[in-house]
Predict the 3D structure of the following.
Amino acid sequence: MRRVGKKFAAARAQVPDKSLLLEEAVPLVQKLKYAKFDETVELTFRLGVDPKHADQMVRGTVVLPHGLGKTKKVLVIAGGEKQKEAQEAGADTVGGEELVEKIQGGWMDFEAVVATPDMMRAVGKLGKVLGPRGLMPNPKTGTVTQDIGKAVREIKAGKVEFRVDKTGIVHAPVGKVSFATPSLVENAKVLVESIIKAKPAAAKGKYVKSVTICSTMGPGIKVDTTSIEAARR
């Protein structure tokens, strides 16, 4: 059996054996922090879907109202005037096909990639590199687009991508433990609403089976799924 540290064990001992409302769970996550760095707060959803079926895939994006507490390095692969648009929107690195070659050579100094549709033939060569890292541009997440400026600004503002994995789980960040509690709660609720709205029509039975919130190093705290389901609009 894997041993846990004393600090983690002490934090876990303070977690009640019941589900809490988000308004109760968020401040508890903040109270139980013990790491010396500013931990990320993350929500984990276990959904009643079978991702093996394309019509039960859950994925999407959401711009959190209070951001994520850090600004992602955005890479844009485009040509002509779209490069200028990307630079004006705040992209960190902008270029054309030469960036594809640079990435193939091992360069990975970025955290998000946006491309114009005409560049996808070249960007497609990076599937094996970017795909496993969740960085491959995709029109469904707004990262393959002609509106480059909007895409860059949204990512810089705290846009979060979520996607169910093969086991029916979705993990997504909602901010840092240092955030004001109301800001973290609002971010969490916006993410919840987005995942609720992304429910596939083919999904049957209970959609949100369980929800847990935790910080990077902290213990998981169960969130009341009744209140989560009530978020449906």
User: Anything to note?
Assistant: The chain has two domains: 15-67+159-229, 74-156. The chain has nine helices and nine strands.
